Amino acid sequence: MKLTTPNRAASLAVLAMLAFCTPAPAAELAGATLPDVLSAGTKTLSLNGLGVREKAMFKIYVGGLYLESHTKDADAILAADQAKAIRMHFLRALPKDQLAGAFQEGFNANAPDKAGQKATFDKMLAVVPNVKKDDTLSFTYVPGKGTTMQLNAKDLATFEGKGFADAVFAIWLGRTPPSEDLKKGMLGG
Q1: Which residues of 123-144 are buried (b: 16+ CB within 10 A; e: fewer)?
Q2: Fewest Cβ atoms closer than 10 Å to its Cβ: which of 44, 120, 174, 177?
Q3: Who wins on pLDDT, 162 or 5?
Q4: How confident is the model at residue 25 (pLDDT cuts 50, 70, 90)?
């Protein structure tokens, strides 16, 4: 049977719709699935790597690092004024005070400009939410816009400046990360 022009056009339209409806591939670790790509402003970020944050033998979250181009060089990631994101998929519920405390520890151990970023970091800690199992908490930096903290699909706050982004991303990529395995996994190693 030969397709006529109207049937052919309809078939092509259906194929085009299916292509747009196909979900993005995803990566999985410890039962958590994170997308292979994220949008950051006008940029598309690719998953650089995944790692698991464990504490006292409990798996807390799977962390994914998203970059414009893959690299294993944490210092280069922090130095670059490019879009980047960290997404945490929580494997268990965590109250805001514990999560904020962990962020504070990471900031104290790794922030390159503690004094200059303390006031903004304190504002960020004030909006840290309680998280439930399977929630995602993301930090996305877009040059010229700032760092947006997002719970699931809801923006919580945006903080201006690359210096603040450096302080936040250094929590995971700095010299004293929450765990070396988490950092290594996020760097694709």
Answers
A1: ebbeebbebeeebbbbbbbbee
A2: 44
A3: 162
A4: low
Q: No. of H helices and E strands in the chain?
A: 6, 9
- Please state whether beta strands 32-35 and 154-159 pair in parallel, antiparallel, or not at all (unpaired): unpaired
Q: Over the stretch 34-51, which tens digit does the pLDDT of each residue have? A: 999 999 999 999 999 999
List domains and CATH numbers for the chain.
25-186 (3.50.70.10)
Q: Is residue 136 over pLDDT 80?
A: yes
Q: What is the pLDDT of residue 28?
A: 87
Q: For residue 82, give the 3-state DSSP assignment.
A: coil
Distance CA 171, CA 165 (A): 10
